[in-house]
Amino acid sequence: xxxxxxxAAEKRYVVDPVRSDGPKKGQTLLRVLATSDVxxxxxxxxxxxxxxxxxxxxxxxxxxxxxxxxxVPLSVLLDNGDILQGSPLAELFSxxxxxxxxxxxxxxxxxxxxxxxxxxxxxxxxxxxxxQVVERSPIPVLCANxxxxxxxxxxxxxxxxxxxxxxxxxxxxxxxxxxxxLRIGVLSVLPTQVMNWDGANLQGRVTTRDMVGAARSHAAxxxxxxxxxxxxxxxSGIDPNGADxxxxxxxxxxxxxxxxxxxxxxxxxxxxxxxxxxGGTWSGEGIxxxxxxxxxxxxxxxxxxxxxxxxxxxxxxxxxxxWQVTGYRAEARPVRxxxxxxxxxxxxxxxxQATLDYIHQPLGETSRPIHSYLSxxxxxLSTRIVAMAQRDVIAARLEGTPHAELPLLSAAAPYQTxxxxxxxxxxxxPEGPLTMREATxxxxxxxxxxxxxxxxxxxxxxxxxxxxxxxQITPGQGDQPLVNTAFPGHAVDTLYGLTYRIDLxxxxxxxxxxxxxxxxxxxxxxxDLMHDxxxxxxxxxxxVAVNGYRTYGGGPYPPVExxxxxxxxxxxxxxxxxxxxxxxxxxxxxxDPAWCFLPVPQARGVFETGPGLARYERxxxxxxxxxxxxxxxxxxxxxxxLDHRSCESAA
Length: 651
Hints:
Radius of gyration: 26 Å
Largest sheet: 8 strands, mixed
Strand content: 25-35%
Oligomer: single chain
Number of strands: 36
């Protein structure tokens, strides 16, 4: 495979879907197979619950790939990133011998991937480990917009990885039988926000260029170097307002719609947001979830954890010495119902067994159950444990420093709260033994920990952003949405060491992207903000233990200025949680909540959670909840009294 590059006249697409009986006379067919956001799920196994699953896994994807290849003579297999992080297996092998092959890359090689694009989570384990893995890979690993040195234009950037690859296939002319070379350019980009999300690993070492600018330049280069078609691996979501192809808001996180409009791009593989396209409920200019197109170009988003295989069939017609796309069809094939591929199963078995040994390491015991079914509407034990573990790590690091005398707080958010991961994606730990499995369930990310300096005013803004995850509630009305689902659970921080209440009758101050949506001076939702029995003043000073993702601007929060970052640990947040559990930390965590809602007279909020909540009758009764059936997706609908006694104080 040779990385050649781009240019060629843009052509008009003919909406002429590939027929089930194959291409028309004078045409040949190329099948593009795509995966995205597999997140290290090699086996169809849920390590958090210790059970086999049917809905995901690279072993089932491998079967779907074999089936799809058998249906056509010509295909390519591509991955759109976020493959190396996201499961206990991936975390275990992030610290493995750098001279040993990574099991994820071994499996992808065995499946015959033609190219892989980097996703943002590939950087979670640091640049050194990433380079160790990808430099051993026989599969081209691409990224066109992360660089060690930024030039005046994309052509002059010193890129961390090759931006593209030219795949070549010999194809018989359907009319004459003469053999011709089909040149397929593959190009990859990812969100620039990776510099915030993994700032601890990246700042000062690499930088980024906006996806639209990089893709435009490198697609043109591929065309100039003879590409018959260009496939874009866009580790970016589908948002009609995400970016403008002419450059407006080029740093938007979800820019697949704008990227599809670029000249020279024929096919867009999207991802990052863990949804499925075609199909589903999508709206916006240029988005056709029935035809599977973005501005008339075929596109696919194949879910996550290996839940779907993206399949795009392209009818190619040879005209004027070049292959042209003259028809297409896109689909996302679920892996449910596919058996696990026996060869891939055997290949990854040693890594799977090593992972089971890792997660079964004993840590201690808990005398009370731990679950996250209510973590989005209350101060929750599952979140509090993480916060206390973080505090212990940072307190030890601050000893002997001038900042050790300041009050130490800890910021934490719930990590497993259903959402797109489904109704079973909640923490549910019974009384009894604790192992590394429970630790990874409580803290699934390889984050660093930081200590940051903050004033009382900055803390109030921090909490206002978190409290914006709740919908505004009108007194005297029942069955009002309580949780704004645009905010993922991990975006909603609690600041432990403070107590406060949240006034739901006031409007939220921020949207899910962290943009202020009420005028300055609007009353804060955060009331009665106290520390150690005293009201927090704007000028008061604190130290906050917080993960690196949040420190560098992850979620609806601004990046912390460098001068306010007092220290940063190695990636040890998970180890801190494991140490805390092993030291009996669960039984030391108090039941005193940091926050609660101000009572709203004669009001009731509605939210969704996992069906496992039904087992916790005491929590249901104490919070004045009523379970009211299930959604089509399997979530439990819950009604919460907002004038209930549980809303009376946070002390």
